[in-house]
């Protein structure tokens, strides 16, 4: 079996597999689709849930110094003033004067090697854009005739309980998932035995009015984030920050990502309150290295801002020394869609079995949507079907298991390879005699005979 050079794999093949095999569908598909929205289909939701479960296990369940949280999406609107989102959460936008296509100016400048500082004023970025816009072609019509750059706020506004339409105060969908963690810092200190340093983890939805949603799940307008915020004593950040950075990188490798496809990248420009910021980047097919997770050293900005805006003192009193301070925050924030795309891209393999090419998702066992598929050799032999149903029923409920009696065995193997099923089990005529089945391994394609009594132990999860 020869592994094809993964660099030859194009994102188009992965997107096509996601659609064809029910992992991901375009949002509102039957209405022509909605930009930046995706729906996770039957295998997609299994993979997504497995990623979340593994992340939760890593960041909450196996830790003594982290607890979990699930906060409400809608928040008092002042929260977004305190966080800086209503005033500063914007991207620089310009529009093609010919065909009205909108671009995100900082990203387009980056493509030609020019860095636009996040802190730049509208005037400064206009000056920079004026100097380079002749080199930026409209992705749709190819012209270079652009409107002046405007700061475009990314928060999605909606209304709630606004029955008259006269209420001036909008509410916002969350621009990021982590704010709920800061809002509950005091609740958690008051109601649990957590003592600084400790962390809070949360998975939650985020919504952003992205100017140009693109690259499939990479940049959407609705997505999920998996965040941890670790609270430390001021200036006691460095060691914990290094530990967290390394732990996050190690997790991706343990989950099966090839180390050569991952790298750290430090931010060139820090927001004014941050003390350090790094991204974990993945080498996506066709797109190249790009961010999957941000790891930010945020000083005392978040809890200080919420103290100021809410009027509630969020400082922490050390129970041993009596010392009072506003903790500093070390954040990890990863998009689940980007993680999904990372895992599926890294697992996507085209190799040769005998004379045939096959597509196989070499997902780790824990992430695979289906762990085992059970096949009767022939579907028109009632005794084979009955025995296979017995095997299937025995496994179902203990493992996520699929039944397939359609087409020849080779085709059934290919179908399971494409969705990343680690094992296929075939019940044949010999099974009726010796109570043994054929177990076929996804990665090696090797087959071995196993007694039904030992089947579960043979294919059981390795680290359940
Ligand atoms: P970018 O520079 O790509 O816009 P960001 O630095 O604004 O991302 P953060 O605000 O730090 O991203 O969000 C944390 C994580 O959330 C990112 O690492 C990414 O995985 C995910 N994320 C952010 N924006 C999007 C989006 N529009 N679609 C999907 N995932 C996103």
List the helices and strands and how they pair.
Blueprint: H1 11-20, E1 24-26, E2 38-40, H2 42-61, E3 66-69, H3 78-82, H4 85-88, E4 90-95, E5 102-104, H5 105-111, H6 122-132, E6 150-153, E7 157-158, E8 171-172, H7 179-183, H8 185-191, E9 198-207, E10 222-232, H9 238-254, E11 262-266, E12 276-284, E13 288-297, H10 301-310, E14 316-317, E15 324-325, E16 328-335, H11 336-347, E17 348-353, E18 356-361, E19 372-376, H12 382-395, E20 401-403, H13 409-419, E21 423-427, H14 429-434, E22 436-441, E23 447-451, H15 452-459
Parallel strand pairs: 3-9, 19-20, 19-21
Antiparallel strand pairs: 1-2, 4-5, 4-6, 7-8, 9-10, 10-16, 11-12, 12-13, 13-16, 14-15, 17-18, 21-22, 22-23
The structure holds adenosine-5'-triphosphate.
The site of adenosine-5'-triphosphate (ATP) has 16 residues, from strand 10, strand 13, strand 16 and helix 11.
What does this structure look like?
The protein is α+β, with helices and mostly antiparallel strands and 464 residues long. It has three domains: 2-79 and 169-346, BirA Bifunctional Protein, domain 2 (2-Layer Sandwich), CATH 3.30.930; 90-153, 2-Layer Sandwich (Herpes Virus-1); 370-459, Rossmann fold (3-Layer(aba) Sandwich). The longest helix has 20 residues, at 42-61. Strands 3-9-10-16-13-12-11 form a seven-stranded mixed sheet, sandwiched between helices. Strands 20-19-21-22-23 form a five-stranded mixed sheet, with helices on both faces. It contains 15 helices and 23 strands. Adenosine-5'-triphosphate (ATP) binds next to strand 10, strand 13, strand 16 and helix 11. Adenosine-5'-triphosphate binds at residues 176, 208, 210, 219-220, 223, 225, 291-294, 333-335, 337-338.
